[in-house]
Amino acid sequence: MKAKMFIAAALVMVLFLMAACSGNNGSTGTNGNTSGKPSPSSSETAGTSNPDAAVPDPVTLKFMLFGDKPADMDKVLAKFEEVSKDSINTKIEFEYNTPQDHRQKMQLKMSTGEAVDVMFDAGWMNLYNHVSLGYYAELDKYFNNDEYPGLKAAFPAEFVEANKINGHLYTIPLTYYYTDLNVISIRKDIREELGLGPITTLEELEVYLQQVQEKKPDYTPLALGGRGFHKLFTPSENGRTDIRLAAVGSDSFTGGIPFSVALSEDGKKVIGAATLGDPDSEFASFPAPFNTHDSIYGHFQKRVDWSKYINKDALAPATGVVSDKGGAGEGTIGGISRDRQKLQEAYGTGLDIEPFVYESEDARNMKPGAIRTDFRANNSVVIPASSKNIDRTMKFFDWLFSSKANHDLFELGIEGEHWVADGDNGYKTTANTTKYQFQPYELTWNPSLSRLNSDQDPATMNYLQYALDNKNYFQIALSGFIFDSKPVATELAKIKPKFDEVEQILKVGYEKNWLEMAQSLNKQMRDSGLETVRAEVLKQVQAYLDAGGK
C-alpha cells in the first residue's frame, strides 16, 4: 500500500512539474503570481519580508558543496546580507571541494560530528546510506507549513511525498528537469573546418575524433573530467519492467554497489542481483539481452578503445571544451551556453560548440518516453542531525524560495551585473556572467522559480525544452525502492572504498585489462561481504514487491 501511495504521489508530481516547467517556456507563466499581472522585478522585491517580524540574532551557517567557487561569490553574499539583514539576519560560509573529496569529507564530517549546517547529497552519492545511519535531520515539519510559506509554495505536498525516504523527508529536493541530458560538446568551428557535416551518430562522432587526432595532433580530441566517460556506451532498459540496470556506480540504488536487479516477467518476483566482475552464472537468470556480464558492464571495453582520444589528466575535476586545443568534451546540455561563453571570452567569438546528446538514440532524436528517470529529484541538500542551527537553516531556505528575487540572487547573481531578465521566466547573460556561475543543481533548482537561459543555440534550446516535458521520460523499474543499508553497513564500509578506487580507473578506460581488474575487485568485494549485501538486496527488493511496489 505504501509503495502504491508513493507511485501515485510521483505521478501527481509529474503533473506539477509539467505545469511549473511550462511557465519556463514563454511569457505566459506566472511562477506563483496568480493575479495574472506581471511579477515585480528582482530589484523591486529582493529581501522583502514581514515588517512586523522580530529580527533574530545573527547566525553564520556553514554550507558544503562541490565544484568551483564562483569568482563573485563574496559580492553576491554581501548583497544577500544587505537585503536580508532585517529579516533572517544570516551569513553563509561556503566550502567547496572536488566531487571525490566532497564524498569523502561528507563521510568524515558525519562520523566525527564536525560542524556543518548544509551539505549537498544525492542518491548517486551517499544519501541513502547516510539516512540509514541517522546522519541527517528529518525535515517533514518544515514543509506544507504556514510558518514556512516560501517552502510551502515552492514544494507542493505531492512533491514532498514523492521524495520521502522510509516515510520521512530528509532532503530539500532540487530539480528543474528530471535529467540534465548528457552530451558530448563538439567544437562546431573545428568540425566545419574539417569539412564534416553535423554529427548524428556515435560512428560519426568517432570519425570526427579521428580527424581531429590526425589533422590537429596538438589538440585533445575528447576532453574528459572527473566524470570520465560517465554514461557514454552504457545500455538502456527502456521499455522494460523486468530489470533495473546499474551499469555504473552513479546508477547504484543498492548502497553504492551497482547491482543490476532482474525481476520476473510480471514484475512480482526478484530473480537475481549481479554486479561488476560477477561470473556469467550470476546473470544466467536475467532476461535477454542482459543475461551476461558484458551485456551490462562491457561498456568498459569501449572506454578502453576510446581512451586514445582523451586527455592524460582525465581524472581531474574539470570537464568540457573550454580550451582552444580541445576538440570535444563530456558534460550536460545545461552547460553548453556557459562553456560557449567561457570559450569565446577566452579565445574569440570564432570558436563555438554544439551538442551531441548521447543519452540514447531516441533521446538524441527527441522521441517521447526516451529519457530515464525514477521521477525523484536527482539532486538535493541535507542538514546534518548534528547541526545546532536546523531551524535557522530552514528559515534561510524559506527566504530563498519565498520570492523569485531572492532565488535569482543566489542562482544567477546580481541582476543587471551578472544577468538580465528576459520575460518572466528567462534570462540573458552579460559580460560578467562568467564571474558568477553558481551550481544551481546543488542548492537552488526549482521548477517554479528557476529561469531558463535564453542565450542558447537553436539545437540546445530544443533539447532543453524537450527535457522540460515529462512525456519524454520513461519510469524505470523499482523506481520507488529505497535500500536500507543499515543491516549491511559494516560490509558496505569495507566494500565501497575498494569499488570507488577501481571505478575511478575503469571509467576513463585507463586499464586495458579491465575485465581482469573487475574480476579481481569482485573477489575482494566477496571477501569483504559482497554475498551478504547481495542477499540483503534480494530480500529488500522482494519485500518491496510484496508490498505492491513496481
Kindly report how far apart the N and C termini lie.
11 Å
**Spatial strand sequence of the major β-sheet:** 2-1-3-12-4
CATH architecture of the domain at 59-174 and 375-451: 3-Layer(aba) Sandwich
Instruction: Find the structural class using helix and strand composition.
Output: alpha/beta
CATH class descriptor name of the domain at 59-174 and 375-451: Alpha Beta
Q: If you compute it from the alpha carbons, what radius of gyration comes out, rounded to the nearest whole angstrom? A: 23 Å
Number of helices: 19
What would the principal axes of the Cα set say about the shape? globular
The level of helicity is 25-40%
- Could you say what the CATH topology of the domain at 59-174 and 375-451 is called? D-Maltodextrin-Binding Protein, domain 2
**Poorly predicted residue ranges:** 1-45
* Average of pLDDT: 89
User: CATH-wise, what's the superfamily of the domain at 59-174 and 375-451?
Assistant: Periplasmic binding protein-like II
Q: Give me the count of strands.
A: 16
Strand content: 5-15%
Biased composition (Polar residues): 37-51
Signal peptide: 1-19
Region (Disordered): 28-54
Domain DUF3502: 478-545
